Amino acid sequence: MRVALLAKGQTLAKFPGREHFDQTWGLNQQAQTRDDLDLCFVMDDLMLRLPAYSGPEFPEWLKTYPGRIMTSTAYPEWPTAEEFPIYACAHKFGLPLGISMYSSPDYMIAYAIMKGAKEIHLFGVDVLELKAQEMRAATAGWIFAAEALEIKVVVPQGSFFYLYTNVPVVMENGIYGYAQRPRIERLVRR
Question: Whose CA is closest to 48, among 61, 59, 32?
């Protein structure tokens, strides 16, 4: 499965269109502006957190949204909302809850991995703000988790994560502390 994850950053403009992907997942208010989403992630609690961040209009509008909504807590007032499988996610990845999810794109990448994605394309997942180190670190961790499972992650130029996935120099320079890069074949044979 090829999945496109759409967030709010500037590289969202590089999204080539739904027809290039098996699934297209969006973030928050994209549900209001796009009709090509297979799934919309609204991870802030729809009742207890979202109104404080977005105002009351968006949560009210979501009550009538006909598409699937992935969120932290599903309430009957939002009939298409589904709870993110946080316990299954923590179990699958062997993670204690609370240390691995710093932003909604983290949940999106983890869910794509859990659903068997073979390629994950990130559009608008840019995290260019200087004060977002925690967010960058967590999202980079999920990108690396996907790549460790041989899932191709594609990030457009302009995103903070572009160097992590697309520039061979970054990946081929070796690893810190070694004068020569260890060969993976030798590590596996031990």
Answer: 59
User: What is the signed CA dihedral for 120, 114, 95, 100, rounded to 10 degrees?
Assistant: 40
The total of structural domains in the chain comes to: 1
Nearest one of 110, 178, 114 to 143, comparing CA atoms: 110
Range of the domain at 183: 2-43+84-189
**What is the C-alpha to C-alpha distance for residues 186 and 190, in angstroms, rounded to an integer?**
7
Strands 23-27 and 39-42: parallel
DSSP-assigned letter for residue 127: -
Q: Count CB atoms within 10 A of the CB of residue 48.
A: 11
Asked whether residue 143 is assigned to any structural domain, the reply reads yes
Domain annotation covers residue 65: no
Domain assignment present for 118? yes
What pLDDT score was predicted for residue 165?
A: 64
Q: What is the pTM of this model?
A: 0.84
pLDDT, greater one: 93 or 41: 41
Residue 66 lies in a domain: no
Token digits of residue 36 = 């090509």
